[in-house]
């Protein structure tokens, strides 16, 4: 900051001609400041101070002044860091830039019409001092020069010394009215600088206080800075003013955010977390398993999560319950008997389905125990027979058919089906494609049958004629399964 | 009033979009021309029609009512509707609410106080209601309108992604953008001059009738274990709304 000494009273001879870009930067800085000040100034009617405008602008051709105003607006979001003053507290550059970025929260890029009005504003601000300026203003008439501004932006990376040095000779030329020359001027400037620094310091210290929506401190500070600015004629003070403005605008933005957030102190993130908690999320200890982005909470959401939430939600709605017929339409069959039948015929074994048509039989509850006993008896019979003759499966019809009674035959088939269902016996077709039955020997096999092989359901129908035919064809003379009342065990 | 009707052709292809406005005396006279039995039958039909139509929660148009139920009894339309409304209220605790006065579209809402008890029938509609209340809460707390990107961002945190098939909801995007909109729970309007097109989410008329800002605020408060007055501006808005 103290690299240059020209303002200590010595005449300063520029090492090189100040380039237009340097001048642009100076204008940029001041324009930005002015525009921001305007944007942040509390009362709409405050007229810009007409007393002593900053001096350097007016030597520039008008177009450049105009374009710089535009550049100021653009630069408001892209202010090069070196433009901003290095204060004693030596903040790094980047935050300045960011802070200045934060200054214009609502207008990241201003379209030309707005630029024009803002530039008019800027011109009005410092257009009243000199005749020259008035001439410039007449000439301006609302020109927008985006291309020039782009050029100005490109040449942003200039050294501070050059730019500051470039400022000096220009600031010498048009004397701000009302300011004295020489030492008094210097003291005055030092005073202004001190005041600025104090102001900046106080704003920084009382940040929290200023942020509070109830206080007007920020406005007051801005007013004070406005007043101080009226005495500013040199870049150094102007730089301090810019620094303060950055600070103030930053605070302003935060205040605005807070204002908005009063309307929505609603944190959707925590709300989402709370919802997940309500839904019964099972949060895992380890994080980062699938937290790819934005700290999504890990955890396992149970399958009834949304149902639980919906159940809670119903309390807040006056929803008419949906109207549904309880029993459905007339066309469907009554479900109850169907279930019973399924239980009966669950797996009459078999690797292939039989082609015989179905005949439904009803199970009668009263004979439940008797059935079970019968089934056991038949199973015993089957196993006994098999023990005697292990390798030959029994021909199915030999087993079940009772040549004397059709009814008994049917009953036998019924009982055998239980055995098959329980997997204690197996029904298959032998080489002649005739059904044979054999008990299932070991437990594993039984289990395998249950799980691995698909349960095939077969429904057998038997008419009286068929039964008679079977008896004749297979020449069955005696029933293998004795009638229940006799305890004799007969072998085939 | 008879003159209005004269413009209409008799028969099945009558124009059902126009309901003759009738004075009560006119209605009375019309009523007398029909038997009580017939009228009651029509009332019952209308009640059944409304109940069935409400199954999918799609609002019922008056045009449909006239065309499918009332038909030739148009002249006593108002009487039939009134009686049907009474039946709905007395028997089922439901009421017919008009959500679109221009096109005469109705929904059924419950007038019974909500019972603190376990919901015996928990089906996919329950789950969908959970999703809906979450969206409605978000919209309300964000100032009664939210951009679709914000809504989906929020839903993402609840493991609901528009592009993925959700295990409960399936095609969530379709559910939210089509079904909820058709049911008039949500109102989704495109924001002009945006490319790719963005949408604005707001409460639909059915949501406004079936629940209230106060209710939704209490829901949010319950979830976050805070008092509803914690959110000052929403609280005031909810209070002003009742």
Main traits of this protein?
heterodimer; A: 492 residues; mainly alpha; three-stranded antiparallel beta sheet; disordered N terminus; disordered C terminus; B: alpha+beta; 51% helix
* Shape annotation of chain B: elongated
Rounded average pLDDT of chain A: 63
How helical, in percent, are the residues of chain B?
40-55%
Helix content of chain A: 40-55%
Give the strand content of chain B. Answer: 5-15%
- The percentage of residues in β strands of chain A lies in under 5%
Poorly predicted ranges of chain A: 1-9, 39-133, 141-180, 287-295, 349-355, 487-492
Major β-sheet annotation of chain B: 3 strands, antiparallel
Mean pLDDT of chain B: 84
Q: What's the helix-strand series of chain B?
A: HHHEHHEEHEHEEHEEHHH
Instruction: Enumerate the spans of chain B where pLDDT stays under 50 for 5 or more consecutive residues.
Output: 1-12
Which series of helices and strands of chain A comes N to C? HHHHHHHHHHHHHHHEHHEEHH
Annotation field: number of helices of chain B: 11
| Distance linking N and C termini of chain A | 120 Å
What gyration radius of chain B follows from the Cα positions, in whole Å? 22 Å
Quantity of strands of chain B, as a count: 8
Taking the alpha carbons of the first and last residues of chain B, their distance comes to 39 Å
Helix/strand-derived category of chain B reads alpha+beta
Query: What class would the helix/strand composition of chain A place it in?
Result: mainly alpha
Biased composition (Polar residues) (chain B): 19-30
Organism (chain B): Gallus gallus
Biased composition (Basic and acidic residues) (chain B): 1-10
Protein name (chain B): NSE3 homolog, SMC5-SMC6 complex component
